[in-house]
Every structure is written in C-alpha cells, then in structure tokens.
Amino acid sequence: MGNCCALLKSIMGFATEEEHDGRLPKQKKVKVVFVLGGPGSGKGTLCAKIVEQFGYSHLSSGDLLRKEIKAGSEHGTMIQNMMNEGKLVPSDITVRLIQKAMQETDNDKFLLDGFPRDEENVRTFEKLTKIEPDFILFLDCPEEEMTKRLLSRNQGREDDNIETIKKRFRVFQESTLPLVNYYASKGKVRKVDAARPVEDVFESVKTIFSSANEQGA
Ligand SMILES: Nc1ncnc2c1ncn2[C@@H]1O[C@H](COP(=O)(O)OP(=O)(O)OP(=O)(O)O)[C@@H](O)[C@H]1O
Ligand SMILES: Nc1ccn([C@H]2C[C@H](O)[C@@H](COP(=O)(O)O)O2)c(=O)n1
Ligand SMILES: [Mg+2]
C-alpha cells in the first residue's frame, strides 16, 4: 500500500480497495443483518432482545448520528437540522460512522438498525465496506400504531412530534420501502407483523434468527 493510501486510510478510517473482499480492516469477516421498519415500528426494542439472545452487536444509525450532535462534531448542526426536518443525512457521514463503530466493536455479528434508508445508503455502504447483508429483518406496522408509539415514547427526541413524524413516514414510503421490495425480490427479506405486543413479535423474530443460525447464514 502506498504512503498516500495509508495516510488517507488513517485520516478517513476506511479500507483501501485491496483490503476489502467482504471484510473490515484487520481481516474481520462479519455477518450483517439490516433491521428495517417504519419510524416507531420497534426496531430498537427488538434489537435489544436479539442482542441478549443471539449475541449480535446492535448499531443504530440514528443513535450514532445523535451521538455526533451531542459531541458537537463538525457535522453536528447539519445533522440536527436534517433530523428535525425528518430528512436523511448524507450517506457518506452515516456509513463512515457505522464503519468506525464496527471496527471498534469486538464482534463479528452486527444488527444495523435503521440502515439502509435509501439507495444512496446502500451504494455507499457497498462501496466502502463491500459487505452484503445476510438478510433483512422487516418490521411491518401500520402508521396509526407507529404514530401512537412515537407520541408516547417520551425519550426526549425532538423528531417525535406529529409534523416531523409525518415527514419521516413520507421518507420511509418513498425511499426505504422500495429498498425492502428490492431485497424481497432477491429473497432476502424476513417480514414480521410488528403491530402485536413486543413478546409476540419477538417470538417470530426468534424463529427467524434460530433458522438463520442453523443455516449458518
Ligand atoms: N410491539 C410493541 N408494542 C407496543 N409498543 C412498542 C412495541 N415495540 C416498541 N414499542 C414502543 O414504541 C416506541 C418506539 O419503539 P422503538 O424505539 O423500538 O422504535 P424504532 O423503530 O426504533 O423507532 P425509530 O425509527 O423512531 O428509532 C417505544 O416507546 C417502545 O417502547
Ligand atoms: N440511515 C439513516 C438513519 C437515520 N437517519 C436520520 C434520519 C432519521 O429520521 C433520524 C432518526 O433515525 P432513527 O433513530 O429513527 O432510526 O436519523 C439518516 O439520515 N440515515
Ligand atoms: Mg430506533
């Protein structure tokens, strides 16, 4: 590797082409599950349970972005403005945060919660990590139920207000659902009815992860 590439890698925290091959730097071969669903469908709630039972590490892209805002990083204000508008943050920023978190986590199994959200997220993730997801867990829930959950979540999220929630639903419909359909056409989507009580949803999720374990997926 040339000095220039090494320098770029140390500054930007990403691997050069020759290091890729489906692995993170340090030759880490990883399993990735994308956890998708509308705002308030229960992604974070279910991920916490999957971590406990199946030993994955949970990376929420929304949480990583919120950490950037809190840390007062270079992009913090822009990220905050985008989030308050229910818009998506540029993929380069989100993917680098995910990549860095994966590199810093001593595990080879990751749940990417709320990622990818659009086609640009997918393209950037593939380009920078060369990782293909094992499968997509899709939490299917009607907007009416998700709205009720978000308005009573009470975690101090500025985007949990009815105007922003409507914008987030629109982004989900227009940018994220087409991705779910794309992965479904490749047989990669495991869809769960998420409008039921948490324990019932988790029963379905457990079946999916147990079967993935058996198949070595
Ligand atoms: N199956 C469920 N039934 C009832 N309430 C639920 C269920 N799953 C999650 N909740 C509650 O709904 C709220 C939203 O859940 P959660 O934060 O897990 O959703 P999310 O998909 O991660 O949302 P976001 O996309 O906004 O991050 C939380 O208050 C959570 O406790
Ligand atoms: N891949 C992502 C994930 C999240 N964001 C932004 C936009 C979302 O409205 C916000 C909150 O995400 P959540 O915690 O609900 O998953 O974060 C993004 O731009 N790109
Ligand atoms: Mg969440």
How is this structure best summarized?
This protein is α/β, with parallel strands linked by helices.
**Strand order of the main beta sheet, please?**
4-5-3-6-7
CATH superfamily: P-loop containing nucleotide triphosphate hydrolases
Top-tier CATH class = Alpha Beta
CA-based gyration radius: 17 Å
How does CATH name the architecture?
3-Layer(aba) Sandwich
Largest sheet: 5 strands, parallel
Which ligands, by name, code or SMILES, are bound? adenosine-5'-triphosphate, the ligand Nc1ccn([C@H]2C[C@H](O)[C@@H](COP(=O)(O)O)O2)c(=O)n1, magnesium ion
Catalytic activity: dCMP + ATP = dCDP + ADP; CMP + ATP = CDP + ADP; UMP + ATP = UDP + ADP
Subunit structure: Monomer.
Family: Belongs to the adenylate kinase family. UMP-CMP kinase subfamily.
Protein name: UMP-CMP kinase
3D structure, described in words:
There is one protein chain. The protein has 9 helices and 7 strands, in the order H-E-E-E-H-E-H-H-H-E-H-E-H-H-E-H. With 217 residues, it is of the alpha/beta class. It has a single domain, classed as P-loop containing nucleotide triphosphate hydrolases (Rossmann fold), CATH 3.40.50. The strands form 2 sheets. Strands 4-5-3-6-7 form a 5-stranded parallel β-sheet, sandwiched between helices. It has a two-stranded antiparallel ribbon with strand order 1-2. Strand 1 and strand 2 form a beta hairpin. The longest helix is centred in the C-terminal third of the chain and has 24 residues. It is globular and about 45 Å long. The structure holds adenosine-5'-triphosphate (ATP), ligand LCLUPRNS and magnesium ion. The site of adenosine-5'-triphosphate has 15 residues, from helix 2 and helix 9. It is found in: Cytoplasm; Nucleus. Belongs to the adenylate kinase family. UMP-CMP kinase subfamily. Monomer.
